[in-house]
């Protein structure tokens, strides 16, 4: 079997399958990206998959050695489809590019390029130097979209910020004084829980935490273990001890972004309940968000889902920190008592483009990404 015998259609087909596989461990691989590898042979009866791998929960092993282990001797002469350039640097284990060379693959088809200076271009160079044919950039944009959290943390040294808002048809996100108000239907709400399952952390402002008393976990059957870490912007530590967030802090991580002026006694009580703290700086009484994001990246967070509060959403937008804007639009209206959303499909900040749209039951979904 010759790797070059695969058509461009074959390459796109198997890379698309690899990209779908890579989604399996989004939000579960620590500082490493969730990458997938497929090994494909054609022994004269058409191509077929002989090995599959996706970055393991926690970040290691990487996808390539897992796919090679599954394929065994069938990896020799096969085509490897990798959603991110194979790593080229030595740690305690050899680089993935070297593993592919030792296994004798005939060709490597790559999607996104890794911006890590220890890897960028070097993985492909190692493969070519060993006589392996390399095809780069197959479905690169699609792969980079799923790898956006890792790529953002690598290049901007902060997490990818995903702002999610549920809006009524008249551009409102809630009702003054009413607490948590269902706006979208059950299907859309389930989709939001999928987003939570794929994020490293979820963030709300203290106003939302006080009014809504949210739990902020993933409550889809079988996915509760994929609940992200919860973060509350709570400079003065006003979050009640009996709130759902605090009561569940020993089961699902809870971080409170608090200033040095917060009451030490409350800090001690919250710590005893299981909460952890993020030290923050403040400007004009508001938490300095860029510095907070720097600290989150240093702790290993690559994706941050911002869910709660018009003022919190507006603050992230005003600082230019939003990378992905996800709007769920209900067909119903709220009226004059409603809380106006800081953004809607008719008022998208400059620098964003529409990436995809969909329908979830009667609700419409619009997803915008910032043009880098």
TrEMBL record:
Cofactor note text: Binds 1 zinc ion.
Necessary cofactors: Zn(2+)
EC annotation from Swiss-Prot or TrEMBL: 3.5.4.26, 1.1.1.193
GO molecular function: 5-amino-6-(5-phosphoribosylamino)uracil reductase activity; diaminohydroxyphosphoribosylaminopyrimidine deaminase activity; zinc ion binding
Swiss-Prot/TrEMBL keywords: Hydrolase, Metal-binding, Multifunctional enzyme, NADP, Oxidoreductase, Riboflavin biosynthesis, Zinc
Domain CMP/dCMP-type deaminase: 9-134
Entry binding sites for substrate: 196, 216, 219, 307
Annotated Zn(2+) binding sites: 62, 87, 96
Gene Ontology biological process terms, A to Z: riboflavin biosynthetic process
Alphabetical list of Pfam families matching this protein: dCMP_cyt_deam_1, RibD_C
Pathway note: Cofactor biosynthesis; riboflavin biosynthesis; 5-amino-6-(D-ribitylamino)uracil from GTP: step 3/4; Cofactor biosynthesis; riboflavin biosynthesis; 5-amino-6-(D-ribitylamino)uracil from GTP: step 2/4
Record-annotated active site: 64 (proton donor)
Ligand binding (NADP(+)): 166, 208, 212, 309-315
Transmembrane segments: none
Entry-linked Gene3D superfamilies: Cytidine Deaminase, domain 2, Dihydrofolate Reductase, subunit A
InterPro entries to which the protein is assigned, alphabetical: APOBEC/CMP_deaminase_Zn-bd (IPR016192), CMP_dCMP_dom (IPR002125), Cytidine_deaminase-like (IPR016193), DHFR-like_dom_sf (IPR024072), Eubact_RibD (IPR004794), RibDG_C (IPR002734), Riboflavin_Biosynth_HTPR (IPR050765)
Reactions mediated catalytically: 2,5-diamino-6-hydroxy-4-(5-phosphoribosylamino)-pyrimidine + H2O + H(+) = 5-amino-6-(5-phospho-D-ribosylamino)uracil + NH4(+); 5-amino-6-(5-phospho-D-ribitylamino)uracil + NADP(+) = 5-amino-6-(5-phospho-D-ribosylamino)uracil + NADPH + H(+)
Function field: Converts 2,5-diamino-6-(ribosylamino)-4(3h)-pyrimidinone 5'-phosphate into 5-amino-6-(ribosylamino)-2,4(1h,3h)-pyrimidinedione 5'-phosphate.
Family the entry assigns: In the C-terminal section; belongs to the HTP reductase family.
Protein name per UniProt: Riboflavin biosynthesis protein RibD
Lineage of the organism: Bacteria, Pseudomonadati, Pseudomonadota, Alphaproteobacteria, Hyphomicrobiales
Gene name of the encoded protein: ribD
